[in-house]
């Protein structure tokens, strides 16, 4: 790490992970004059193609991790599957943000739901199980239908099954222990008949001062985030309640950094926290910049990355307000588009033809894979339905611009 | 340079210069998935602290420059004082954008004005001189008052003098040859009694397709850009004429990349191109991202950096439109603030208290010097005078936040 100039902020910030979240955070940190070091085992990590200080070493390489920690003033992470025991050993006096207890809670779906229960945060009824037999037994007592998930690991729909009858209960038991493991921590959850998925990001500094972002409406396809709309199409009282829940969660965990709360909104009467005709449930938490938050790069006066950068550099936050009336939308660009259609990233003619598309970001990933997040775009339109239409039209155009040969 | 992934655009882009303009351009190129290499003789160049591929070598190091050119697909530059003869030798078949003839024209104020004359672009009356005696002789014939500038080199008010009488003519002659040079190319220009300084950026691709940015109003203090307001407070017909002049200039030079045209606006009757009660004059050109254009990072649907990045990657442009009603303003943060006040970059409490400030960018320069551009900020307000007030208030607050001890 080279010497820090006197005209920059004092922070040297370490980021565990050199994917798109780490890279975009690094950009915000550099904008404050901070120094940044990233750590990623993947020699093809996008950050490595760009940034000066990237360590390529395994998550289990204690010597490399120790060196990394010794060269920075504060450490954060871009994904929550960091090995907490290793960090416990290494962090020492270096602030690790959000802290270890936040990391361990959000690494475990059972711990998340227990935290909700302890702090009065609305959530779906849940139960724990730890082996195939217990899953069957607890599942029958719990009542069908339900969703069963591994408590740890798994994302974008991996490591979960929907149980609607005895046959699917057997399938789930087989599937979740297909690797031969005898025991595995599982969570059974009541299925929330949601009408909307939403998320709400809270930025909270070491002094407990917090800013809450506007509520995002999220649409998933095959368990992967497809688009995010802001503001969410919710009555103001429901959005306010969602923001309050997100803030309460950040306080309950004493988050210093970002906490994204993923929420379900359902019709009132199904449990959760009732607001007028709606009910809100916490789904899960992510203690880091969130895919849905990419929309804030263009839509709000403070982006999720700028907010986290300021917290890490111990600079005050400002309130993230929407930059314009109407609706902003973020659409993910997945690897499927590359695999099916060749080189959609070259179809920028389409971008020029869709002036409502304000920004396209490509992460520079080494190779396209199905469902892999390769980039995203942000568009603005006078109203939500036009914004959603713009996503579909732009993505269709990208896909059709370079038909597979 | 590491291997390019198949999922990125094909360009490997070389940037001569690793200051703030090169860095912000690199950010836009990375956002397209391109690879970037920067070249700067300064071991403290801000780019070096951040980016993976920065060559630190002298501008006269032909071997280092040749290696740099051999590793990229296209080369651009962040400032126009690049040695054109060296580039002529090295560029070979690598596109150099904007091209050598643009560079040599914009390196020379006489060549710029002659180009204006040849292409009917409005400009102040001018004359050439090349030694102290000729300056006196030509100056007397030209008529007082006038401004005399070195044709090459000099920026931010350096290398120029205002001549109002015989005594100041002698002082100018002495000052401009103070280094003992016998001959130096000079340009004498009539003083335009301008009421506004403005600039207009044109982005133009290799096929000649161009996009013209909104006109910026620029305010200088001691010859250094202080703030930029967009849209400029001009009648629409005057702004349209300014954009047309800027576009004509870009076409006249066959610019592939960005051309910034700096303009004077005066009252009609003083020469120039008359539009209603106003007259427009070209002041000078810059074939690169421009300090005034920083406002586009926040104010327009396409930034100057994104526009140049797309041209370098051979991707189509879209139209840069203002993102909101009202006025956007960019304020420079100069080294004086650091020298006089300690660490104003740490006064982000002020930022939080000035919610109209949307973004602050610090360049991470090694040391503060008087007049040195250390960073900038962008604010938005409902109308131009509130925007300008916001600049003053924010800057005052930064300066007062950390009084010199």
Structural summary, described in words:
2 copies of one chain form a homodimer. Helices cover about 35% and strands about 25% of the residues of chain A. Chain A is globular and about 55 Å long. The termini of chain A are far apart. Chain A folds into 3 domains: about 10-95, Rossmann fold; about 125-190, ATP-grasp fold, A domain (Dna Ligase, domain 1, 2-Layer Sandwich), CATH 3.30.1490; about 195-400, D-amino Acid Aminotransferase, Chain A, domain 1. In chain A, helix 1 (about 20-30) packs across helix 11 (about 305-310) and helix 12 (about 335-340) packs parallel to helix 14. In chain A, the strands form 3 sheets. In chain A, strands 9, 10, 11, 12, 13, 14, 15, 16, 17 and 18 form a 10-stranded antiparallel beta sheet that branches. Chain A has a 4-stranded parallel beta sheet with strand order 3-2-1-4, with helices on both faces. Chain A is built from 14 helices and 18 strands. Chain A has about 400 residues and is α+β, with helices and mostly antiparallel strands. Mean pLDDT of chain A is about 90; it is low at about 1-5.
């Amino acid at each position: 790490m080279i010497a820090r100039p006197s005209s920059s902020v004092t922070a040297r910030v370490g980021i565990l992970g050199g994917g798109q979240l780490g890279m975009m955070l690094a950009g915000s940190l550099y904008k404050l004059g901070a120094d940044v070091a990233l750590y990623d085992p993947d020699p093809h990590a996008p950050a490595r193609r760009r940034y000066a200080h990237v360590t390529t070493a395994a998550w289990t390489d204690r010597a490399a991790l120790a060196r990394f920690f010794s060269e920075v003033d504060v450490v954060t992470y871009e994904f929550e599957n960091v090995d907490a025991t290793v960090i416990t050993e290494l962090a020492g006096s270096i602030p690790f943000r959000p802290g270890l207890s936040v990391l361990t809670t959000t690494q475990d779906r059972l711990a998340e739901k227990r935290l909700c229960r302890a702090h009065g945060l609305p959530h779906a009824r849940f139960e724990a199980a730890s082996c195939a037999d217990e899953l069957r037994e607890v599942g029958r007592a719990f009542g069908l239908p339900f969703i069963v998930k591994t408590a740890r690991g798994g994302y974008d729909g991996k490591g979960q099954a929907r149980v609607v009858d005895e046959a699917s209960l057997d399938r789930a038991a087989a599937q979740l222990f297909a690797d031969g493991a005898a025991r595995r921590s599982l969570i059974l959850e009541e299925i929330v008949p949601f009408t909307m998925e939403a998320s709400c990001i809270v930025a909270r500094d070491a002094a407990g001062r917090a800013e809450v972002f506007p509520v995002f409406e999220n649409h998933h396809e095959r368990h992967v985030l497809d688009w995010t709309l802001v503001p969410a199409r919710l009555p103001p009282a429901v959005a306010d309640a969602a923001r309050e829940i997100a803030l309460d969660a950040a306080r309950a965990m004493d988050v210093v950094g970002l906490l994204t709360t993923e929420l379900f909104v359902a019709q009132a009467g199904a449990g959760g926290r009732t607001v007028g005709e709606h009910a809100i449930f916490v789904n899960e938490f992510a203690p880091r910049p969130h895919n849905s938050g990419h929309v804030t790069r263009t839509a709000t006066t403070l982006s999720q990355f700028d907010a986290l950068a300021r917290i890490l550099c111990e600079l005050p936050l400002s309130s993230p307000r929407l930059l314009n009336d109407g609706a902003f939308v973020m659409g993910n660009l997945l690897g499927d588009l590359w695999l099916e259609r060749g080189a959609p990233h070259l179809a920028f003619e389409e971008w020029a033809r869709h002036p409502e598309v304000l920004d396209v970001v490509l992460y520079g990933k080494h190779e396209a894979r199905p469902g892999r997040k390769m980039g995203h775009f942000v568009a603005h339109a006078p109203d939500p339905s036009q914004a959603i239409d713009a996503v579909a039209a732009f993505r269709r155009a990208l896909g059709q611009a370079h038909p597979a040969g």
